[in-house]
Amino acid sequence: MPEYKLHYGPQHPGTHPFRILLTVDGDVVVTAEPHIGYVHRGIEKLCEYRSYIMNIPVINRACFMEGSFHEHAYAMAVEQIYGVEIPQRAKYLRVLAGELSRIHSLLSWFGGYVSELGFSTMYFWPWADREYILDLFEELTGARISTTYILPGGVRWDLPDGFEKRVEKVMKYLEGRLALYDKVVFKNEIFKARTKDVGVLKPSDVLKYGVTGPMARASGVKMDLRIDAPYSIYDEIEMDYNLLDGGDCYDRTKIRLMDIQQSIDIIRQVLKKLPGKEKVMKKLPIKAPVGEGYARIESARGIHAYYVVSNGDRNPYRVKIRGASFNNMSVLPLIAKNVKMADIPAILGSIDVCPADLDR
Amino acid sequence: MAFEIFSNELTVAIIKAVIFPGVLFQLVSVLMMMWFERKVMARIHMRYGPYYVGKFGLLQTLADLLKLLLKEIIVPLKSRKLLFIAVPVLLLASAFTPVAVIPFSETWYIFRFPYSAILVIAILSMVPTLEFLAGWAGGSKYSFIGGYRAATQQVSYEVSLFLSILPSVILAGSMDLIDITKAQNQYWFILLAPLAAFTYFVASLAELERIPFDIPEAESELVFGWKTDYSGILFGFQVFASYIFTFVEAALFTVLFLGGWIGPFLPPIIWFLIKTYLVFFVMVVVRAGLPRFRLDQLLNFGWKILFPLAILNIFLAVLVGDLILI
Fold this sequence. Notes:
The complex is a heterodimer of chains A (360) and B (326).
Chain A: E1 4-8, E2 19-25, E3 28-35, H1 43-47, H2 56-59, H3 67-82, H4 88-116, H5 121-141, E4 150-151, E5 154-155, H6 163-186, H7 189-195, H8 203-209, H9 214-218, H10 225-228, H11 249-273, E6 291-298, E7 303-310, E8 318-322, H12 324-329, H13 332-335, E9 339-340, H14 343-351, H15 355-359
Helix pairs in contact in A: 3-4, 4-5, 4-11, 4-14, 5-6, 6-11, 11-14
Chain B: H1 8-18, H2 23-44, H3 60-70, H4 81-96, H5 116-124, H6 127-138, H7 141-172, H8 177-182, H9 189-192, H10 194-207, H11 219-222, H12 232-257, H13 268-289, H14 295-323
Helix pairs in contact in B: 2-12, 2-13, 3-12, 4-6, 4-12, 6-7, 7-10, 7-14, 10-12, 10-14, 12-13
């Protein structure tokens, strides 16, 4: 059979809203070429028509799974323009929201990824666990997904009474579940056969393509913004790099579960070191001074960066977003070369692209 | 007299074919199997599963069937139209046929045939051809890939499936499913040939395209494999056919290894159904507990592990037959 082109997506149960143009020879994929842009909403442009605080509900839809990270990076960039220092307690709460958000983002990715390999049960278990995190968010912010919690100047609410205890309960439950997933998924021979040595990403390519986050760390590149360039209060948190050196789909899955464990540890430290009650929101004037701000954070998928320019108006003059998914996706043609057709969902899933973040 | 051809025996056979264990029973059985599978899967997933239609959602699958009946049948423009429509019908027909020779009790069968074990396998081996044709007739790349995957997979696992029934045949000294069952009065063959039972079970999972071998319809790669282009009741026919095949393979497992209708107290037919659905239950649990293989891994497993094991079984069966049964 001659080579033929296969349009993998955008209407396909295995992909998100983007298309991958596969050149297939028999059962072997010769090239895979991602075509993106199906969910472009022009968030950067939208931000220019709203005031700084009104941008938050737009920004956290840059990726619905990790709204807290986008809010956090944007808020830090805007605070640079205003030149304000926010209350210490608010910083801790931001990190708390961020790490909770990381856990729910990674859990939902994990469920989706393993079920794409045909393991239907593992779709529902992590998503059921994720509900507990969403319950915590609902209690903390009133919303489950689009939390709109982190604003320029602080966070919207302080913790409700007894919140720490309920967080600890969920964290304990999650640790048990992680041990279970280790048994059910990572010791499963079929899962190993499907993911080991599939889609290997070399450390040199990580640096060349600007790949960040768990994907880079699974290839053995020491890269974690929370340690390399600690923002917010991460310099007060004890943590170490999660590193694996395989760079294949198996390690990329494993490192994300290690990230969940790390987030659990961070949340415990945050709750322990949380400073006493104070106002968590500093009111900022509507009009910002002339200037610019740049902030980046380590999200569940890699580095999100925000560059905000102000010309002294109510609205930002320009908001530039660097989404982690875009760079991570750019290695797909590299690692999905000469693989079996059935490896495509395995490789694509392991990149953990958020299509909303990809197009913005 | 013209009426003589409707002899008593033939009338009974026709009634059996229409009611039990034939068409009507199979329809009810398939609906219940689907409900059972969805419910068991859901409980393993920590969900409720079908809930609202009927008691415990028992009528949910019937409602789904009605929905499929009412939907428009879309025949794609580029498909080979006659073949496209004919394949699901043929598939359903070939699914019903093996039920005729399966003995539900010593007297309750539609048709007795001295080589019935081979007959069942022969009909099952028609399936890959039909599925390949379905994939080809659909005229889309996804369904074509699904079709050729189905053909590759089933043709290579058919060999192991056929070899795995031979131990029972050797131990019983007959190819008649009724004689095979009768030979298990003392020991069920799963005790004498456990390895054969294992290879049969694995090969039948591959034949039925169930997880971990559902490669032809791997939805994250191929949308729905060779079924992608089908809609309405044509799709329903295929689903029905696949569940009847599941019933047949589970029933064959019961006959070959679990002593068929043999069991104390309860009527033989009840015993037979209990064992068959128990085998189906194991299939469902396997489906909930495993991811899916890749095609090349599947073929490697089939030819390098399962096939030699299946051959080994035959020698083991001869040995066991000599040592124990005499």
